[in-house]
C-alpha cells in the first residue's frame, strides 16, 4: 500500500499541489485523473522521488520515503516499476536489452537467469520471440507492451504508469488497460496510473483520485463516478455529448 499525506509542491512561488492525501491499495488499479495542468504528473514524480515535495509524506508499506536519504531510497526504487509516457525505450537497444536493463542495473543474476526473466516478461505481454527487434520496428502498442515488460522485469511491488494509452487507438488502449489490470491483480501490485482516458476510468478505475487546480476534489470508484454531484468532476468526465448520454445508462 502507498499512502500520501498532505503533499504540497511549489515551483518558485507557484503552488501546483495543495495538500493531497490518498491511499493506494495493492491489487487495485489506482487512477489519478484531472485536466491538463491539474498536477497529476507532478504528484506522480513526487511519489517516486523525481521531485521533492515541498512538504508532506509518501509512505511505502509503512516506510516513509520522504524521510530517506539517497542510499535508503535505492531499496524502494528497486521495488518500483515505471511505464513512462511514450514508453521511453532505448532506441539503440533491442527489445531484449531494454527489458534486461534494470536487471543489469540492480541484480547480480547470471546471463541465463536474466534471459529467463526477459523471456518470461515478454511472454507475459504477448511478445514472445520479439527479443531481437529494435523499438523502431515496433508499433506504438507493442512499444507500450515492451515498456510494461521492462517495468515488471524486477517483479515490482509498485507500478507507476504515466498516460499508458497516449497515442494509441481505442482498441489497443483497451489491450494495454487489460494487461495492466491483469498484472496488477495477478502479482498484487500497487498500481498507479495517470490518465485522461475515459475508457480507462470506466473500465479499470477501482480507485480514482480526481485533481483539479492542484487540489483533491474527489475520490471513489468507477461505479460511484457516474453518481457524483461534484461539479468539477462531472464537467471533466462528462464533457462530451457522448459521455453525457452514456451517463444516463450507468
Ligand atoms: N519543473 C517544473 N517547473 C515549473 N512548473 C512546473 C514544472 N513541472 C510542472 N509545472 C507546473 O505544474 C503544473 C502542473 O503540471 P503537471 O504536468 O503536473 O500537470 P498534469 O496534470 O500532469 O498535466 P497534463 O495532463 O497536461 O500532463 C502546471 O502549471 C505546470 O506548468
UniProtKB/TrEMBL annotation:
Entry keywords, A to Z: ATP-binding, Nucleotide-binding, Transport
Annotated transmembrane regions: none
A GO MF term: ATP binding
Annotated ranges, domain ABC transporter: 2-238
Presence of the UniProt keyword DNA damage in the record: no
Top-rank taxon, per record: Bacteria
PANTHER family: INTERMEMBRANE PHOSPHOLIPID TRANSPORT SYSTEM ATP-BINDING PROTEIN MLAF, PROTEIN TRIGALACTOSYLDIACYLGLYCEROL 3, CHLOROPLASTIC
Protein name as catalogued: ATP-binding cassette domain-containing protein
Organism this protein belongs to: Hufsiella arboris
Amino acid at each position: 500500500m502507498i499512502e500520501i499525506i498532505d503533499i504540497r509542491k511549489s515551483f518558485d512561488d507557484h503552488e501546483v499541489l495543495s495538500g493531497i492525501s490518498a491511499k493506494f491499495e495493492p491489487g487495485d488499479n489506482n487512477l489519478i485523473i484531472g485536466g491538463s495542468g491539474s498536477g497529476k504528473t507532478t504528484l506522480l514524480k513526487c511519489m517516486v522521488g523525481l521531485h521533492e515535495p515541498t512538504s508532506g509524506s509518501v509512505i511505502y508499506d509503512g516506510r516513509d520515503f520522504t524521510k530517506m536519504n539517497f542510499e535508503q531510497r535505492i531499496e524502494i526504487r528497486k521495488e518500483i516499476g515505471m511505464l513512462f509516457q511514450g514508453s521511453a525505450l532505448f532506441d539503440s537497444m533491442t527489445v531484449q536489452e531494454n527489458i534486461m536493463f534494470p536487471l543489469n542495473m540492480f541484480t547480480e543474476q547470471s546471463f541465463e537467469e536474466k534471459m529467463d526473466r526477459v523471456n518470461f516478461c515478454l511472454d507475459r505481454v504477448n511478445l514472445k520471440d520479439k527479443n531481437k527487434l529494435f523499438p523502431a520496428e515496433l508499433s506504438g502498442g507493442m512499444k507500450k507492451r515492451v515498456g510494461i515488460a521492462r517495468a515488471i522485469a524486477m517483479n515490482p511491488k509498485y507500478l507507476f504508469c504515466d498516460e499508458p494509452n497516449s497515442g494509441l487507438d481505442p482498441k489497443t488502449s483497451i489491450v494495454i488497460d487489460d494487461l495492466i489490470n491483469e498484472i496488477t491483480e495477478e502479482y498484487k501490485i500497487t498500481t498507479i496510473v495517470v490518465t485522461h482516458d475515459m475508457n480507462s476510468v470506466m473500465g479499470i478505475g477501482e480507485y480514482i483520485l480526481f485533481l483539479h487546480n492542484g487540489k483533491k476534489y474527489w475520490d471513489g470508484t468507477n461505479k460511484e463516478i457516474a453518481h457524483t454531484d461534484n461539479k468539477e468532476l462531472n464537467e471533466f468526465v462528462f464533457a462530451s455529448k457522448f459521455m453525457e448520454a452514456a451517463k444516463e445508462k450507468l
